[in-house]
Amino acid sequence: MPICRFTDADGNSQFAIYDGSRICPIALLTKTAPTQAELLAGGATWLAELPTPSDSQWQPAPDRLLPPIDAPEKIICIGLNYRDHAIETGSEIPSEPIVFSKFNTALVGHGEEIRLPRVSEQVDYEAELVVVIGKTAKHVSTDEAMNYVYGYTCGHDVSARDWQKGRPGGQWLLAKSFDTFAPVGPCIATSQELPDASDVRVKLHLNDEVVQNSTTAQLIFNIPELISHLSKIMTLKPGDLIFTGTPPGVGAAKTPPVFLKPNDVCKVEIDGIGTLVNPCVAE
């Protein structure tokens, strides 16, 4: 069952079963609210064994949801991982994954605003499939890698291009880590809900126009390869997020370039997960 995280009437965060327009707090099914650590440790099997919610246990989904993972230890991102995207940027096809990161202060959930910073005039969009790690992984082979995946969510790697390319040395970390530059959600589709993410469609709607549209079959480095590669360098922990790369169609590659502006609405749509919606506002 897909899960989300929301703020209850008392101002506390809770996990819930997610069904698009409605949610069921897991605490109603278990009598105690599970912690994030308990939820990840239980895995998709534990969720699948929960009782089916009754009609009275469902409630309307709020307009805003919290990021489905709270304070991940690592937000790892992969650059230029779609062949067509590398070509449209004029970059060489990478021979190994290009890795950078974002800070937790960039995280926002479904329905929350992307704040366009005062110090950037070239904020771009990037729809991405995000992997949620479920178990500690170190020196994992590609054959074993999928055993460490808890599930998947929609991600938006918002990027300030004038910082990424226009600053000394190319400031990828800073360009990608402005507050609100890592929307994720609305839910996590567990590995049981989405057992094969090797060919799922990833779209980004900018207002009413589809500007990115591809599938994860176009990844240069697939998910098992990414997990194996990263685990050789760092210990992956439960709750870590891996942004797997963005398809072609980014604003910076258009003629003329298209950058985000106040009142734009970004929708990241991924098959088997749902749609992550975030409006843009001026900081």
TrEMBL record:
Xref: InterPro entries: FAH, Fumarylacetoacetase-like_C, Fumarylacetoacetase_C_sf
EC number: 4.3.2.3
Xref: SUPFAM superfamilies: FAH
Pfam families: FAA_hydrolase (PF01557)
One GO term of the biological process aspect: carboxylic acid metabolic process
GO MF term (any one): metal ion binding
Annotated ranges, domain Fumarylacetoacetase-like C-terminal: 74-279
Enzyme superclass (EC): lyase
UniProt keyword annotations, A-Z: Lyase, Metal-binding
Entry annotated with the keyword Lyase: yes
This protein's record includes keyword Lyase: yes
Family: Belongs to the FAH family.
Name of this protein: Ureidoglycolate lyase
Organism for this UniProt entry: Novipirellula galeiformis
